[in-house]
Amino acid sequence: MSGIAKTPEPPYYAVIFTSERTAGDNGYSAMGDRMVGLASAQPGFLGVESVRDEQGVGITVSYWASLEAIAHWKQHAVHQAAQKLGKAEWYQRFGLRVCKVERDQFFEM
């Protein structure tokens, strides 16, 4: 996951997942890659951007065409299993925000 996601003209939705990790990988990286692959195959998925700092605080923003697409992803069985593992092993705490993107602007050299 690198770079700026290429999203369509607004409106669309952003799901912002902010987390503080526990120590060690414990399968986290592999599951993260799997989640991106599965999400990418979901109808309505538009892209993802993700960063994590040295202290373990991360922000992942996924972009979606509709609230319905977000709801379907939330119910995906493998995604639900990953959520349970996240609560049990990978995160000290996390927050989730869902936003409607009404305007965007980009710059590129």
TrEMBL record:
Statement: the UniProt record of this protein carries the keyword Oxidoreductase: yes
Coiled-coil stretches: none
A GO molecular-function descriptor: monooxygenase activity
Domain of life: Bacteria
Residues annotated as domain ABM: 35-84
Keywords, in A-Z order: Monooxygenase, Oxidoreductase
Pfam family, one: ABM
Name of protein: Antibiotic biosynthesis monooxygenase
Species: Paenibacillus cremeus
